[in-house]
Write a structure and sequence with these properties.
mainly beta; four-stranded antiparallel sheet
Length: 125
């Protein structure tokens, strides 16, 4: 059974975060290290995935997305208040979206391309 584990950086104190029969992946820590966002296959055949968030202490796993076949590659914004992710909710190709960390206020950022693996970085003027 595929599942995700959380362990200390030295490999000690491991505990299972999830226990799902479907594949899970693309985990990302919140900036304060209190939460983990990840994608879980929901169809069992790799054709559909949704985003979930969990507290690092294994409590309160919540599903954040329910639209589209693929919702993947989630990343927290640097302030930890929003999530950037890829989804095909508005068409056949992946576009970038942003939403509040509770799953509300979803906004599409790109249109008509293959946009995946989002990442935040600082740019100096």
């Amino acid at each position: 059974m595929p599942c995700m584990y959380v362990v200390d950086s030295n490999g000690d104190n491991g505990h299972r975060l999830t226990a799902n029969e479907n594949a899970e992946g693309f985990p990302a820590w919140s900036p304060d290290s209190r939460q983990i966002i990840f994608s879980t296959e929901t169809a069992g055949d790799g054709s559909s995935s949704q985003l979930f968030i969990a507290n690092a202490d294994r409590n309160n796993i919540r599903q954040l997305t329910r639209q589209g076949k693929r919702n993947a590659f989630p990343r927290f914004t640097p302030d930890g208040n929003q999530l950037l992710f890829s989804s095909d909710r508005d068409g056949p190709l992946l576009d970038l979206y942003i939403m509040d960390v509770d799953g509300s206020h979803v906004r599409r950022l790109t249109s008509g391309g293959i946009n995946s693996y989002p990442i935040w970085f600082a740019v100096k003027p």
